[in-house]
């Protein structure tokens, strides 16, 4: 009995030599196409993971956030760690789900960075699969749905979120939003379905909001979908349920959010919203730009080229289906809205925006002509290429940190007293050095804290940091 189950029932060719008992006369016939589909899905997941290998093979970390949380999570007992309670809604950054999960992950995985990064990459891959599933349920061709998921997962916004542990919150809230959309698509009509729709919306919105404030976009996006679907009862109930959770959240936290502590970078600023909104639109294909805030330094010629590409995309969507272009613009704006009021831009804020745009462009492609499809293909290639650039940057910084932080801890251990004033021999590495040395309480059980600083002059330094990250006494 060496034949496979698939070969018995028409054959898929992937399961040879797998023992299987005789098929009874009344047994259902297995559709070989479903077997092929399962294998295709597995290969798609493996492809996504392979293309994100620089992220999950990263031997180190990107910024001070990961190092600070590792220090917080290193207490002798779990009970003694600085957990954030779900009732601490007066904290400005009220993210108990994110912070507590981050604490657990840091405690368990910080010493094995590749495993830590793999967790985030898997979460990002799950979000890409959810997006593809939503598109398939909406009638998008399989090839277009998977292409959209691939571009989304490999976009500069996504790889930044999946490669920097500090962006765990963005993975969670976007997953909650995508999950509720997929659940609503799967429900039938009827009173029971309305109840399930309401419960799913409440749960998804609550999970998103205790992960990050940006999840306030979930009810807004559900409302946009409800409007597009002409107020179908299922979606209308979900929007009302989600909106109710959001109103309760704002009732508790609006005053805290509107009045951040002095010295924090989260003050609301409205006058520069148009520029920041435009930067989020064009950043996906702004090659060689590591962080979106740097775009403000770009020349007018570069901005002109980026805007021409953006207009080409919009024109293609307009020619395909005008309502889809409107949905893309409004949906992207709603996904970005919580971040647009801040006085700065950051890559992670574009993660939900990218899911919306990739999804709606995939829906539009079916109605595009040659020019439209060529435009979308070029922009998709540029977007993925930009994402790979950021993947390799994150990997490079991680390799440097894997040398620098242990070396710094060794210096602090050998010289238990006195300040450690650092100077980067390679001036291009100064910014990375400042991020990785910023307010780190301890590393590998060695106290650092206020002892460590990065100075502006080599004459003031007593330790130099070599190009490979090693810390050595000033020559």
What's the short story on this structure?
This protein has helices at residues 5-8, 32-51, 53-56, 64-72, 96-109, 113-137, 142-154, 156-163, 168-186, 191-211, 217-228, 233-258, 273-282, 300-320, 322-340, 351-365, 370-414, 430-436; strands spanning 420-424, 442-443, 446-447, 452-454, 463-465, 471-473. It is mainly alpha-helical.
Describe this structure in words.
Strands 4-1-5-6 form a 4-stranded mixed beta sheet. It has helices spanning 5-8, 32-51, 53-56, 64-72, 96-109, 113-137, 142-154, 156-163, 168-186, 191-211, 217-228, 233-258, 273-282, 300-320, 322-340, 351-365, 370-414, 430-436, and strands at residues 420-424, 442-443, 446-447, 452-454, 463-465, 471-473. By secondary structure, it is mainly alpha-helical. Mean pLDDT is 91; it is low at 1-30. The longest helix is centred in the last third of the chain and has 45 residues, at 370-414. A hairpin with a 5-residue loop joins β5 and β6. α8 packs parallel to α17, α9 runs antiparallel to α10 and α11 (217-228) runs antiparallel to α15.
């Amino acid at each position: 009995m060496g034949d496979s189950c698939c070969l018995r029932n028409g054959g898929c060719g992937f399961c040879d030599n797998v023992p299987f008992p005789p098929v009874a006369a009344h047994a259902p016939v297995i559709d070989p196409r479903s077997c092929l589909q399962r294998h295709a899905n597995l290969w798609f997941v493996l492809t996504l993971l392979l293309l994100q290998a620089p992220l999950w093979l990263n031997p180190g970390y990107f910024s001070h956030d990961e190092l600070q949380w590792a220090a917080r999570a290193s207490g002798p007992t779990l009970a003694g760690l600085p957990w954030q309670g779900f009732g601490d809604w007066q904290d400005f950054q009220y993210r108990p789900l994110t912070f507590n999960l981050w604490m657990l992950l840091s405690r368990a995985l910080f010493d094995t960075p590749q495993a830590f990064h793999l967790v985030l990459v898997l979460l990002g891959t799950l979000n890409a699969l959810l997006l593809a599933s939503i598109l398939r349920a909406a009638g998008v061709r399989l090839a277009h749905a998977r292409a959209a998921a691939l571009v989304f997962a490999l976009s500069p916004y996504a790889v930044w979120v999946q490669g920097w542990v500090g962006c765990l919150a963005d993975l969670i809230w976007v997953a909650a939003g995508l999950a509720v959309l997929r659940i609503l698509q799967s429900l039938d009509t009827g009173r029971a379905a309305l109840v399930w729709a309401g419960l799913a919306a409440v749960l998804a919105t609550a999970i998103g909001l205790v992960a990050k404030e940006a999840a306030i976009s979930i009810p807004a996006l559900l409302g946009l979908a409800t409007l597009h679907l002409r107020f179908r009862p299922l979606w209308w109930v979900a929007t009302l349920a989600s909106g109710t959770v959001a109103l309760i959240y704002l009732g508790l936290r609006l005053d805290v959010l509107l009045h951040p502590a002095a010295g924090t970078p989260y003050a609301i600023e409205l006058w520069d919203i148009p520029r920041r909104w435009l930067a989020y639109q064009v950043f996906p294909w702004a090659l060689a730009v590591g962080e979106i805030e740097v775009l403000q330094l770009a020349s007018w010629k570069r901005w002109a080229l980026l805007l021409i590409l953006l207009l080409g995309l919009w024109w293609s969507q307009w020619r395909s289906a005008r309502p889809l272009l409107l949905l893309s613009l409004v949906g992207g704006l709603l996904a970005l809205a919580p971040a647009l009021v801040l006085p700065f831009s950051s890559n992670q804020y574009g993660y939900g925006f990218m899911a919306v745009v990739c999804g709606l462009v995939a829906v539009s492609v079916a109605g595009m002509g040659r020019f439209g499809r060529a435009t979308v293909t070029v922009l998709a290639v540029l977007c993925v290429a930009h994402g790979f650039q950021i993947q390799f940057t994150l990997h490079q910084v991680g390799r440097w940190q894997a040398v620098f932080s242990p070396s710094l801890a060794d210096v602090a251990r050998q010289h238990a007293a006195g300040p450690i004033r650092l100077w980067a021999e390679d001036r291009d590495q100064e910014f990375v050095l400042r991020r990785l040395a910023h307010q780190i309480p301890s590393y590998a059980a060695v106290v650092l804290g206020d002892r460590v600083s990065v100075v502006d002059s080599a004459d003031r330094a007593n330790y130099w940091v070599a190009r490979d990250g090693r810390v050595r006494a000033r020559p």
